[in-house]
Amino acid sequence: MNPEEYLIETGKPFEWQYPLDYNEVIETECDVLVLGGGVSGCFAAIAAARKGLQVTLVEKGCVKHSGAAGSGVDHWMDCPSNPASRITPEDYIKPLDVHKGGYANYIGSYITARDSWETLRELEEMGMKIRDEDDVFKGADFRDEKSKLLFAYDYTTRHCIRIWGTQMKPALFKECKRLGVNMVERTMATDLLNENGEQGARVVGATGMNVRTGAFHVFKAKATVLAMATPERVWIFSTEHTGLVGRDGPPTNAGNGFAMAWKAGAEFVRMEASSHEEWGGSTGIGTVMFGSGSNFATWFPCSIVDAEGKEVPWIGKNGEIIDNFSRRANPGPDDDFYCLVLGGKEDVSVALPQLVPDLRERIKKGEFKLPLYADLPGISEHERRAIFGLMVGQEGHTWPVYRNLTRAGFDPDKDMLQVYELGDAPLGWRRLRYGGVITGWDLQTSVEGLFAAGQQLFDGMGVAHACSTGRWAGRHAAEFAKNADEPAISTDQVSRERQRIYSPLKTEQGINWKELAAGIAKVMQDYCGDTKTDELMKIGTLAIDEIKHSEATQLHARNPHELMRALEILDVLTVCEMILAACRARKASNSWIFFEHLDYPENDPDDWRKWITIKLEKNEEVVGEAPLDFYGSLTENYEKYKID
Questions:
Q1: Which of 285, 294, 344, 604 could bridge across to 299 with cysteines, CB 3.0–4.6 Å?
Q2: CB within 8 A of 17, min separation 6: which ones?
Q3: Predicted local confidence at residue 284, as pLDDT
Q4: SS3 label, residue 256
């Protein structure tokens, strides 16, 4: 309830419930500073603390339940190193060539493929359940009887593990606490501090603001790890009924880490990549993601039937009809293995079996009658219990759905759940497709002393990736901090940032953060949407710049919560500048990264098979390039940089 609604309903003015002190300045020194308390940030903090260093973890929310996995997760992907796996990490990396055309982060992916089992075992030691210890699924096709691990997607090669992910964040929180990590909660990081205040110089800490008291924080550190997530609310914004709209991460993700690293001078790649929202719930006009019947991800490989009980057929990787349930999760003789790799090109075979791609046309022709349903009673008991009882019950998006349906009497043994999500979102409604900072094998960015993990990295996706790269970044940040000189913070930079973040409190009658967010999203929809042209992006760039120097200066906030929201939208505005800069720089269409440019219709020509890099230098945009294979030898570099 906002202050106006509170006044109308109660007749009393809204009173802030926490003691306010905008003049308070809290200074903290540490060896390693971790910004973002999701799973990647927690693992970075734990890894650094286990090296005996002083670690401070800054989190906008509450560490115990914050981040994309804060309320749960059902899959632990990218784990070919587990004891029951029948493929190697090298095997697992191959689909990045086939389904992403080489436009992938091979460093983060290979680290994850090699380390994800060790990382999961650490979570088990912290108290998170990863095995079917009670033999609930004994004898199931997806269970390994020796290890008692449960697998998803590919039951033959066994590289994606079903887990009890609602226990993950509490376990990580407990371990951080045990190791003495200084967890500064309810505090929004606002800016990175460069040595002597010089953009591009070594990062020596950060500033922040307590979202309850308004107190200002100054963090001084020898090494800093960015562990925040991709921006949401760039192309679409809605707060009514559905709350702040996001995709598969918390809707409060506003690209804070992106904006901070950009202003600090770090180099980014793949910022021009974007794609349709693929699920109705993600657009703010449909259902909760995976909260209705489906056949994808949490629901894979559930059968789908029409209103008259007719089953919708599945196709395999090469387009052949799959006529039995087991085949959906067990590769055929011509398939290497199944994996969840989301690629761009339409003419490349899918990574997983799926429903027939022409389902919409078949429905229009009358072959299938709407509505469609997820046929839980029609599949085996083990599959039914795994999908609805375990996966829907553990995935953060859907555990409230599981709870509410169960309380209402839904019985998966007898009841089917209607399918609402049947394809792409409306034109113009898009999301950033995993752009981020570019790093070396130590996960240090182009700015000295600044490391990155999870979705702060470009092409970062999934909880196994977030945890594994967080663990890796934390170890390397600790090694850097051991040998680093004492940091030198610029008081002028701190003073400027303090003045910037509190300016919305001084605006008497300005616009609120929701108005600004809606305006920014509309500009991005109109001028940087599904298809791009130079003229459209020129107009979009001018519009974003006008907003930056006019409406954005009129932001008004009445309390620390509104101030946090206002600062988030300013970061979204910065991210829009980054996206437009990268989009203007790529003069070729590229379906691998969902980039369609009408002025340059040739798809992925040879002279544009490269990364486009962007960064700020003396506050001016600098465009560069890097070869797709800048990472070098995977095995050799992994062994060279691995820290036990």
A1: 294
A2: none
A3: 46
A4: helix
Let me know whether 289 and 413 are in one domain.
yes
**Ramachandran sector of residue 158 (left: φ over 0; alpha: ψ -120 to 50; beta: rest):** left
Nearest to residue 435, comparing CAs of 270, 253, 632, 554? Answer: 270
Hey, how many other C-beta atoms are within 10 angstroms of the C-beta on 168?
29
Determine contact, residues 516/552, Cβ cutoff 8 Å. yes
How many CB atoms are located within 10 Å of the residue 186 CB?
A: 18
Asked which of 234-248, 257-271, 294-308, 486-500 is least confident by mean pLDDT, the reply is: 234-248
Nearest to 399 by CA among 133, 168, 190: 168
Write a three-state SS string for 128-151: CCCCCCCCCCCCCCCECCCCCCEE
Instruction: Indicate whether 29 belongs to any domain.
Output: no
Nearest to 24 by CA among 217, 219, 220: 217
- Contacting residues for 573 by C-beta, under 8 A, at least 6 apart: 516, 520, 544, 547, 548, 552
Domain stop point among 359, 389, 419: 419
| Reported confidence tier of residue 426, pLDDT bands at 50, 70, 90 | very low
Q: What are the pLDDT digits (tens) for 230-283?
A: 888 888 776 654 555 445 567 778 899 999 999 999 999 999 998 665 444 444
Phi, psi of 72 (to 5 degrees): 135, 165
Residue 513 domain flag: yes
Question: How much is the pTM?
Answer: 0.94
Let me know whether 499 and 407 are in one domain: no
Tell me, what amino acid is at 311? Answer: E
pLDDT tens sequence across 189-229: 999 999 999 999 999 999 999 999 999 999 999 999 999 98
Q: Is the distance from CB of 240 to CB of 48 less than 8 angstroms?
A: no
User: In this structure, is the dihedral angle defined by the CA atoms of residues 48, 49, 55 and 57, taken in order, positive or negative?
Assistant: positive
For residue 605, whether the previous peptide bond is cis, meaning omega lies within 30 degrees of 0, is: no
- What's the pLDDT score for residue 252? 79
Domain count, the chain: 2
